[in-house]
Structures are given as structure tokens and as C-alpha cells.
Amino acid sequence: MKGHLDTKSSTESTPANRPLDARPFTVAADQTGSTWGKILCADPLIIHTLPSTGFPLGCASTIASVVGHLTAHVLIMPSWTIEPADNSRAMIHAAKRHLRDYSKHHFTFLTNTDREWQIMMEAGFDAITLNQNCLLNDSVFCPIPTIEPIYDAVYNARLSPEKRPELAVEVDRPALVYFYMPFEHTVPQFHAEHARLRAMMPRATFVNELTPLGCEMLPPHRVNEVLAQSRVGLCLSPVEGAMRAAIEYLFAGLSVVSTPSLGGRDYYFDEEYCIIAEPNPRSIREAVDALIARAVPREVVRAKTLARVEVDRVRYIASVQELIDRGGGSVQFADRFRSLIHGRGILRWRSMVEFSSTVAAAVGT
């Protein structure tokens, strides 16, 4: 196993990385903001978190005033690739600074790729390659045998230049699923980009209806229905994180066409039903056509993906349980893990004011 969760003091944290683009940042954590955080165990205290804009260590910095004097194990899972040197340097700097101030805290980095694991280990930190996508709920996205495909391919991604939706311009019947992010566009800018892409991609179906506030947001079950109507899933950006849409495609039984990328979205890919194609429209179309011709059954794609994911889930459970046992705790984490994965989830976005109160109550401070 590459890296096991350990209790020795770690010296770095996740980079100050954005969850939605590749630009590193060094903004101090906003105590009144929100980011990902979850208490896995209260005794000993074990917290899982992801960095986001303004939260270079996820929730770790925001709860320092509450548990800075206590032993705490923080599992930090980069939400964006840390392979670029600027990103990993930002993470290392933030983590070292935190651990200098809070010597009873221990960081373990759960990386999306083996290269990220290597970077963190060489920097002197505890790390384990454990792709973020193994922690997503597999019961929401699944094949729907009663729905017949009507789209050759689907791309679930923001309408952003970095996502490169125009690479699907030669696909015969593509579908685009998207959402509106205010930090990225004003509403008029978003609508203009939508119009530009529609003019460029006349054969595409733009699934989300526009609204005065941007566009409608499809609930997960509706996204799953669109996946069921599609034959292939597309991943077209050059760099990001683990990319949730990639594992959602696989859970739904879709074959996947991706471009070469950084971030770890290909971690659960299989050559039988996944193709890494050159980032140009002809190569994307040819790869889509090739996978449609292979016609790998959705049940096969899902079953093979779940088998691979389960290996990492078992590793995650064992690693957290080891921390619990070493800390003298009595919790059996396996059952709690399964209830989290198929319930509200580990990767939860939440108010840090509320989360700090939750942590304080859990540890009795």
C-alpha cells in the first residue's frame, strides 16, 4: 500500500487550491465561510477535509481555536491537482505553518494520484494514494435499463474555457449538462457563453434551461437519467482534480472518452471501456464512435468500477480504524463509513461556524 495513515506529525497541508480551477491561492481561511469537513471520530478526534478557495487547509485552520490544544488527526484530500510545483509549494507552506503553531495536530494527505503521493512523501509528510472518487455515493448514479440512449455522448461540466466543451463539436449527438457559478460569470456573460457554444455546436442538446439567475440546476437523479440517455461520458479538461463526473459516468455504466489530464480522474479507468484521446474534435469523435461500437454492457462497466472502488474503500476504513485503535478509541469505523457513503456523505460542504460548534460539542470544549 502506498502510504498508510500514521500518527506521526506531518508537516504539510493541502495546497491552497481552488476546487474549480488551477490557480493556487494563499487567502487565509474565512471563519464565516464554508468548505468541506467531516468528523470521522470524536475520540480520538479524526477529521476529513478538502481545501477550497480561501481554505488552504480545508477546515483545519478554522477549528484550530477550538481544538488547537488537543491531539487531532486531519486527513486532507486535495480537491485540485497538486502536481504543479506552485500548488504543492503552497500546500507545504500552509501546512508547515499550521503545524508549527499546533504541534498536537497531525496531517495525512490522501492524494488522487501516485505522483501527488510521491510529492508529499518527498516533502516529509504522511500520505496515501486514495482517490477522492472512491468516497462518492454509488447508489445515486447507476444504469437505468428502461431508458434507451438517444445521445452519443454526454459532458457534465461547467461552460468554461478550461472544460473545453468545443472539443465535442464533431460528435453526432452530444448532450451538455452544466450549472451556473457566480464567481466565474455574471448572468449575462453566462448566457452569452451558452449562446456562443450553441451556435458552435448545432447538433448538441443543451439540457439545462436558462433562467434569469443563470440556469436550472438538475438534481442528481435527473443527471442520472441524462446519463442513461447517453452512450459515452466525456472528460475534456486538461487539468483539474479527481472530477466527480468521471466516476458518476462509470457508476452509471457509461464508457468514457477523456483527454490526457492532470488530477487523477483516470484513476478508475479501464482500457476495455475508456479511451484517452488527443484533445482535438476529430480524435474525440473517433474515440466516441469506437466505444459505441465496442458496446461494453453498462453492468460490466459498473461492476468493474465498483470492484476497484471497494479496494480503496477497504483501505480507507482500515487506515482510519488504525488511527482509532492507536488513540485508544472503541469505535468500529466500518459501519459508520458505510452509513456515511450511502447517506449524507463524507465530502460535505458546510458552514465553518456550524462545523466549529459541532467539533466543540463532540470533544466537550
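(the above was protein one; protein two follows)
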Amino acid sequence: MSAKAVRRHARRQGAAANRHRHSNQPSREELQQQVERQQREIENLREQLAEREKQIADAERQIADLERQLAGRKKNSTNSSKPPSSDGLAGNQRSRGRKHKSKRKPGAQPGHPGHHRALVPTAEVSAVEVLLPKQCGHCGGNLPQKPGKLTTEGEPRRHQVTEVPPVKAYITEYQCPNVVCEHCGNATRAPLPEEIAGQFGPQLTALIAYWTVVCRLPRRLVEAMLGDVLGIEISLGSTQKAWEEVSQAVEQPVQQLQEQLPREAVLNVDETGWRTNGDKRWIWALVAQQFVFYVVASTRGAEVLVSLLGAVYRGILCSDRWVVYLTYHSGRRMQLCWAHLKRNGSFAGTHWPLWLGCSVFGIGFAATCEIGAGIRSPLTGDNSS
């Protein structure tokens, strides 16, 4: 075959290939349809992605909420402001005692100095009884039984037994006879002094108030104890009356202590829930250097501080971060309670992410340093460190 024929054949094959290639290419309309279909698929994928991101965000919020609830159930008196009485089924109990069992035997260890009850001086005891041996512990001979006819050596062994004496009510009867006058013949009777006008003396009245207020015993239990232990029959109303008499007696010194509160250089303040006849109240405690002042109020607001300390307290107020204290003492010298910060930091470091716990504790630490820097530590007068 000649070279011209070969070139013609090659041109024919190239033209056929071009016709075949052009015949397989899609048209403009087909390309437009393909683009629109791919755009719809992309939109569907975007919607699915957005829905999946929403589901993930909802799941993360639920997880965070569950983690907060779980962390809240793990709060106790060692890592929050909850009182020790709340430790129990509501959360993990605080750890008590050693984490690891000791290999030592219970009780005092060898070489440990003993602790004994101190003896009261002989001159202060109520009675002394001398116990004499009847026979010699060496030869078995009889020994004299009269203290004046025996010979001793060294100091005797002393052993004391403390006992409550038999308790019996001491009742004083005051008689007021009708004395007839020799001049007019009329009878006159002396009035009862005010200090003995009641049926119970000051010591018994104070004991009833002590059991009722300090020991917080129910009045019926106080009534039963007086009858069973002291043999004093008393009605339930009389226990209430005794309590009211003591309350009136201490009204004046309580008022004096309340007037002293604004003049104290340092006060530690806190409040907690209190029930009075089933109604919710708040008992406030203000701790000064030499006394503690308690007051029961119907509110937890700043008006209690204003009524006790005035509109402005000039001293150092130590408290927790309850908003009432921060608002009342804004701009003044105050000391935040380090125990609260320590517990909150312990809880944050245990139950929150490490960086968040450090951040929260760091904020509290910085706030304390800023507010309390350069002031005296409550009750001690030492500089804060």
C-alpha cells in the first residue's frame, strides 16, 4: 500500500473516531440535569449534617445535665456547704477513718503513755474510807484493824469513785399567818416577796430552760425527767411558764449584747434553717471575740444585718459568699470563709473537668485575696496570709 493510501486510511479512522466521540457526549440539557441532581444531593447531605449536629448538641446538653445531677448527688459536708447531718442516702457519705486497714492491734500500743482520770485532792473529797488487809500476804499472820495501832510505809494507794448523791427536791414552805393587831383588833397578813411569788425556785426554773432551749428537749420529756429523776411533779404548762420567766430574765443582758455588736472589730456571721412550730425560720449566729449572739428571724435577707449592725458596719465581717453578705458589705473590708472555698475547690477538682475546677477555684481565690488582703484574721488579729 502506498503512503498516500495509508494517510487516507488514517484520516478515515480519525474521522470515524471523532464521530463516535461526539455521538457519546451528553447534550447541554443532560449536563444541566446532572448539575441540578448533584445540587439536590448536596442540599440533602447538608440537611442531614445539620440534623446530626443538632442531635449531637442535644446529646451533649443532656450529658452535661446528667453529669451536673450526678455531681450534685455526690455533694456532702466535706465538698460543699451542706451540713454533716445531710450526709446519707442522698449522696456518697464522707469518708471516715482510715482508707487502709491498719495492721496494729486495737487499743494503746506498747510504750504509749497512759491517760488516767486525775485524782481530786483529798481535802476536797466528800468522804474517805481506809481499807485495811486482814492477813499478811507473806506469812498469813493477822494484821491490826484499827488505824491507830498499825505501822505503814510509803504513800497509800488512792482510788476515787465519783457518784451522784441521792436527788430529792428541796421544798421550802412559806407561811403567812394573820397577825391580829393589839390596838384595833384587825388581822394583817404579810405579802409574798416578788422573788418567791412563783411555785419554782430560780435553780429549777433555770434547769427547765436549759433542758428546753440548750438541750432542745421536748417539753413533755422535760416533764417526765423532772418526775422520774427528781420526783417533782410538774404540768406541761408550768414548763412553758418557767421557760418564759427565764426569757424575761435574760432580756436585758441580751439587749446589751445586741447593742455591742456594731462596735465589735470582727464578726463571723452565718445563718441556717430553723423550724418554729412547723414554720420555716432562720437562726442567725454572730460570733464576736468574747460572746456569741443568736437571733431567730423570718427572713434570710439583709434587713436582719441592718437591724443588728446598722446600715453600715465598720468592722471586718467574715462570712460565706451568700449574696446577702456581699451586697450588705459591698465596698467594705470583709473576709470570705476559707473553709467554704476549700470545700468548693475540692468538689470542683473531683467532679468537674480539671481546667474548669482550677478556673473556678482560682476565681474564688483571687476574689478572696482582693477583698481580704491586708486585713486582720477574724478573732486572732493576725494578718491574712
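Reviewer note on protein two: The chain is about 40% helix and 10% strand.
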